[in-house]
Specification:
This protein is an alpha/beta fold. It has 11 helices and 14 strands. The chain has 2 domains: 2-179, no CATH class; 187-430, Purple Acid Phosphatase, chain A, domain 2 (4-Layer Sandwich).
Length: 431
């Protein structure tokens, strides 16, 4: 029986690996195609400047050289996909080279996503450009005696400059996203009403940190600054809702060094995310949490008595996308649900099941708020929306609430657009 289970797991892992290899290969070929398209467009823009001789050749050589150099990490990304395909967009050079590769990684991702935005937007821009030219051009028919129309050089220079500026915008947006991913630290203050909340728990505060992704694009000094901000809020409880590392179990050590100073009146609690599990960092994180005096809750709970009131903190491991609601139901059936219940669950998809069993408050992350999102009114367009409707913020089913934290780190590209990093300060109130 155990042998059959092992074989089934091996087949599942092999199938997932083959899908990742295929996906990364297709993605790499797509990115190469986009780079060739962008290079061709840049050469055309240089032609529009009407440079001649040595200047034109030199500028073209510089552009070709730059595009080639900036895409060298794409070669590693393509090769890595055959030997260590942890994720479709994960970029993880050997740990010894992380510091040296970090600036190249930033440039690569900024350029790559700028190129994607450029490729997506350029047909629209060119259509607008053609429309603009057509309607502003003086028709020869207005002057029947004229057979040759004078060239308006000032207008042509304006259009050429405008085209160059518009072409640069996607790369500027991508660069802004890389800066915003590191500098726009947002403290979201949230009040959660809990039915029949004991008076002893009235005003209890929770600080939630999620999706830190220690690694190439999240240095120890940055994590230490987040810890300082969290401690300054003087919370009663701190919840760490998974994805502590990015790509390697080696990243547990700097993560724990940075997190160890966290302080809360009733303790620091955490649950595991998908990155923590596929990097096989579970044991290292469990040791790190224990040494720091934190509680890593793996399908179990911790009862905290506060002046006679019971606060029940439950933590569950990340459930794979193929896991059914019965998996969470089975875990919760083995755990006491007395008192006011707070569930730490990395991914928010199974919130309806948590609400069905009467969990008062579920805290999740995982989505990064979309990380790169286009907002049109109340509508958010992002790939993460394909996997869950619970992207970010506070949600409610019956008397149960869910809060989805946008996270502090990034996965794949170190870029955030319309999804700034977040530290959540939650206050419980009686309803």
């Amino acid at each position: 029986m155990n042998q059959h289970i092992f074989i089934d797991q091996l087949v599942t892992i092999s199938g997932r690996t083959l899908l990742l290899i295929a996906g990364r290969t297709v993605l790499s070929l797509l990115l190469i195609s986009v780079q060739l398209y962008v290079l061709r467009a840049l050469v055309r823009i240089i032609h529009s400047w009407q440079l001649i001789g040595q200047k034109a050749r030199l500028l073209k050589a510089v552009v070709v050289g730059f595009v080639t150099i900036v895409n060298l990490p794409l070669v590693f990304f393509f090769i890595e996909g055959f030997f260590r395909p942890n994720g479709l967009l994960l970029y993880s050079p050997p740990r010894a080279f992380e510091s040296a590769m970090r600036p190249f990684g930033y440039v690569f991702f900024v350029w790559t996503f700028g190129s994607l935005f450029f490729a997506a937007a350029s047909p629209v821009v060119m259509a607008c450009f053609a429309f603009f030219q057509f309607f502003l051009r003086k028709p020869a028919a207005r002057n029947k005696e004229a057979t040759v129309e004078a060239l308006d050089l000032s207008r042509r220079r304006f259009l050429r400059t405008a085209l160059t500026a518009v072409s640069a915008m996607p790369f500027a947006v991508s660069a802004y996203g890389a800066v915003a991913a590191r500098t726009r630290n947002v403290i979201e203050k949230v009040i959660v009403p809990i039915p029949d909340l004991p008076s002893q728990l009235e005003g209890l505060t929770i600080v939630q940190l999620s999706d830190i992704h220690a690694g190439m694009f999240m240095k120890e000094s940055e994590m230490a600054e987040y810890v300082r901000i969290a401690n300054s809020l003087k919370p009663d409880l701190i919840a760490l809702t998974g994805d502590f590392v990015a790509t390697h179990s080696d990243q547990v050590a700097p993560f724990m060094r940075a997190m160890s100073p966290l302080q809360a009146r009733y303790g620091v609690f955490g649950c595991l995310g998908n990155h923590d599990m596929f990097t096989r960092s579970e044991e290292a994180l469990a040791r790190g949490f224990a040494n720091a005096g934190f509680k890593l809750l793996r399908n179990n709970n911790e009862i905290i008595e506060i002046d006679g009131a019971v606060l029940n903190v439950i933590g569950v491991d990340y459930f794979a996308t193929r896991s059914t609601a019965a998996t969470l139901d089975g875990v919760l059936k083995r755990i006491s649900l007395e008192g006011t219940t707070i569930l730490l669950q990395h991914a928010p998809q199974l919130f309806p099941q948590a609400a069905n069993v009467g969990i008062d408050l579920t805290l999740s992350g995982h989505t990064h708020g979309g990380q790169i999102a286009l907002t049109i009114g109340e509508m958010i367009i992002t790939p993460a929306a394909l996997s869950t409707m619970f992207l970010a913020g506070l949600f409610k089913i019956g008397d149960s609430h869910l809060y989805v934290n946008r996270g502090l780190g990034t996965t794949g590209p170190p870029i955030r657009i319309n999804a700034p990093p977040e530290i959540t300060h939650i206050t419980l109130k009686a309803r």
